Amino acid sequence: MSKGEVIVGFDEVSFEYGHNHPILKEADFSLRENSKFALMGQNGAGKSTIFSLITRALKPESGFVNIRQGLTIATAKQVVAQSELDLSVREFFASFAKAPEGQAKVYNIDPKIDEVLEIVNLHAPHEKIVKTFSGGQQARLLLASALIQKPDLLLLDEPTNNLDKAGIEHLKKFLTELKGTCVVISHDADFLNAFTEGVFYLDVFTKKIEQYSGNYFNVVKDIEARIERENAKNAQLAKKIQENKEKANFFAQKGGKMRNVAMKMWEKIEEMEESQVDVRQEDKTIRPFVIPYQSDIVGEIVSISSYNTIRDHKPVSHKANIILKKRDHLLLRGPNGIGKSTLLERIASNKSKGAVISEGIKVGYYRQDFSTLNFEDRVYDSLMEVMEEKIEEKLRACAAGFLISSDFIYTKIGRLSEGQKGLVAFARLVLQKPGLLILDEPTNHINFRHLPVIASALDKYEGAMILVSHVPDFVQKIRIDEILDLEK
User: Fold this and answer.
1) Of 137, 176, 337, 419, which shows the fewest CB atoms inside 10 Å?
2) Dist CA 88 CA 128 (whole Å)
3) How many CB atoms are closer than 10 A to CB 366?
4) CA-based nearest residue to 251, from 242, 264, 236
5) Sign of the C-alpha dihedral computed for residues 132, 138, 142 and 147 taken in this order
């Protein structure tokens, strides 16, 4: 489809959260009708903020966000809002569906709900409560909530989080065939490359938005080539600057007219120094880390004798004979909605009759919704809470390895981006030293640069581990000793 007029334009837009948290500095970019772009950048750079500026939920400090008159915009958020979890499916969609002009509310909404649920490949009773859906099913509801608005511009924030392989493939197909404009925030480069034609890259260092044509891997090559050119130019300038400084110092010592020559040379040196470019810094990656395990454990750590799955929205009981000891890694596998997260939650709470954790075992539980974190806590307090020995030096060293800088170590967790919350959750596991590690979709929201480092740490973990992940490349990097396929 041919590209049309500009429908969104940022004109020297600046925005910051408080005085010490700038997001954008005089940023410029434009989005044309019928184009599909990825919005990428480091965790916490402010990608979701860009969406909020486009939807006018936020206003720029300076500059202009120009939106074509009459443009309809819908956003599929990363997570279902707390206020929406207790709604029925019908009530949930009623808050998004647009009533015809002149009507106060939407009537006969059920066919519209069925239409969008069919698109996202989810079949659910309209009376079912939103919080009873799995994480993957909630991700599909969020996408459907945007589609029911029939927008001109679709904004998707991490739409693959919690989706199983079939769900991701279904979403790829939908976005490839979509006749409209779309911007997607995602850390999944392979997913983005399936349908996007360009990248908006939010540089966390310059606070600018760089616009590229081609897929993400092309963008990486373009950036590397640019850095190489900038470094070469700076190296040449540095050599000339040093040569001129030596000459200027020599002439200055001669005195008389030569001193005037030296002064002119210093002016030229200042011009050359100003012409040196700030080389774009590449995204930082978290440091390699180890999750220490509880050293006093012996024998059986957890045993699973039975478990439930969900079939046609009803629980089905199954027998099992799984015993995990030190260095035993178990992978739970199955499609969205079958009950993986529910099983992990019951195991972690030690309230399941069919799963027993041995006495004295410390459980490190990474939840996909980060509900093990208190969003009112500061990052510092959250990390200190799990430490047996409250040694601040160790806390700060661990935090720095997860890119938790002094800029936000005293920030409330609720104000962090989803990716930053994930890094805090991993830092807590390192400081906690658990005997049993339970991980529910630990790749969600995490910058893809960090994933090999995290996989390596999990692969080497010496305690018992239960893992759920729908990312095959990630799982392949981790030692798995046993698989429990809930679908079978």
Assistant:
1) 176
2) 5
3) 22
4) 264
5) negative
